[in-house]
């Protein structure tokens, strides 16, 4: 078995692999990406706009139409319903793990700086449980990442407005896929997210009536606080803390925080599977506990499994097998 010291040592080794290509970019409000073009701009302007987005989130995260995919064998692509103006980023790439019967399906939303190869095993595993799985590339990931971007910095960065806009695009992309699945005859649809993907999956499940189950692998309550406290985003905090406080960052990114949509999950009676790591230094355990407290307060149905691993080591044995088993049984029960 792994000791706590061994887990922490491996966590730091894996976390540091990308440190050399992480740069501290200047903080930007990015208000023009949210439709505000008249100066002067301030964090208060952004927070005011975000509060309006939260109160009208059903509209803010609603795609105009279902996906219209172009098949490429067991892959397909389609135009994003929320174009960013970056040609590569506006074509959504998906990998399909299809079963014979079109009844149950799960949309997989991956972690930050992931690749399709990271989720090959999960897609195959879910299909063996009789669930069609679709891996969706996040904005600025896989073939959607422009050549000049070393990381998926277009998705999460010190540009507050761009981060909101990119995550909004990801939610709309996922809901467009759900619309396509529905048109294809699937009536039991789940959504699964890992790390930042769990944030996006929560927003999807809270707003789409066609979603019957939600799985959150490595999740947290507040998007801004994850960025502020997490090991993977130290470079972003360095840029933000020059001008902003944690309270301001949490308010600016509240539209992306799962805690903002607990009431919607309860109202839709969506069951949730939460899997977390006790040694997680990216999504700190107290932020997962805060979300669980919200679930308890509002009466959301949930299962919570806490492994002894960290954020990165969840992909190592035996926690990777434990995660796959729990996902398979959860979706087979609720879909």
Structural key phrases:
single chain; 335 residues; alpha/beta; Rossmann fold; 39% helix; globular
Give the helices and strands as they follow along the chain: HHHEEEEHEHEHEHHHHEHEH
- The backbone outline, from C-alpha atoms, is globular
Task: Provide the low-confidence segments as ranges.
Answer: none
Structural class, from helix and strand content?
Answer: alpha/beta
In the CATH hierarchy, the architecture is 3-Layer(aba) Sandwich
Number of helices: 12
End-to-end distance: 34 Å
Q: Could you please say which CATH topology applies here? A: Rossmann fold
Structure description:
It is globular and about 55 Å long. Strand 6 (188-194), helix 6 (196-207) and strand 7 (211-217) form a beta-alpha-beta unit. Helices cover 39% and strands 16% of the residues. The mean pLDDT is 95. The protein has a single domain, classed as Rossmann fold. It has 335 residues and is of the alpha/beta class. It has twelve helices and nine strands. It has helices at 4-15, 43-55, 57-60, 120-128, 160-183, 196-207, 223-229, 234-240, 246-252, 262-268, 285-298, 319-334; strands spanning 70-72, 75-79, 91-97, 104-109, 132-136, 188-194, 211-217, 272-277, 302-307. It has a nine-stranded mixed sheet, sandwiched between helices.
């Amino acid at each position: 078995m792994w000791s706590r010291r061994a887990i922490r040592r491996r966590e730091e080794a894996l976390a540091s692999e990308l440190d050399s290509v992480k740069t501290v970019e200047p903080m930007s409000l990015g208000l023009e990406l949210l439709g505000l073009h008249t100066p002067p701009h301030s964090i208060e302007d952004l927070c005011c706009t975000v509060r309006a987005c939260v109160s009208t989130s059903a509209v803010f995260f609603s795609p105009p139409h279902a996906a219209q995919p172009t098949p490429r064998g067991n892959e397909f692509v389609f135009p994003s319903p929320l174009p960013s103006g970056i040609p590569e980023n506006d074509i959504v790439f998906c990998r399909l793990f299809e079963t014979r019967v079109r009844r149950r399906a799960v949309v997989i939303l991956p972690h930050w700086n992931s690749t399709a190869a990271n989720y090959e095993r999960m897609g195959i595993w879910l299909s063996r449980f009789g669930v069609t799985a679709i891996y969706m590339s996040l904005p600025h990931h896989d073939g959607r990442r422009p050549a000049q971007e070393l990381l998926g910095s277009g998705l999460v960065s010190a540009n507050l407005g761009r981060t909101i806009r990119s995550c909004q695009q990801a939610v709309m992309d996922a809901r467009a896929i759900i619309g396509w699945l529905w048109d294809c005859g699937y009536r039991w649809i789940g959504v699964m997210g890992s790390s930042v993907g769990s944030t996006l999956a929560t927003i999807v499940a809270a707003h789409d009536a066609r979603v019957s189950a939600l799985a959150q692998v490595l999740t947290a309550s507040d998007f801004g606080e994850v960025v502020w406290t997490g090991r993977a985003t130290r470079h972003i905090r360095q840029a933000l803390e020059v001008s902003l406080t944690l309270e301001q960052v949490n308010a600016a990114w509240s539209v992306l925080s799962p805690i903002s949509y607990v009431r919607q999950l309860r109202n839709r009676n969506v069951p949730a599977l939460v899997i977390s790591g006790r040694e997680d230094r990216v999504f700190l355990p107290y932020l997962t506990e805060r979300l669980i407290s919200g679930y308890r307060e509002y009466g959301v149905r949930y299962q919570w499994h806490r492994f002894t691993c960290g954020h990165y080591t969840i992909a190592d044995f035996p926690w990777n097998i434990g995660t796959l088993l729990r996902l398979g049984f959860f979706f087979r029960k609720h879909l």
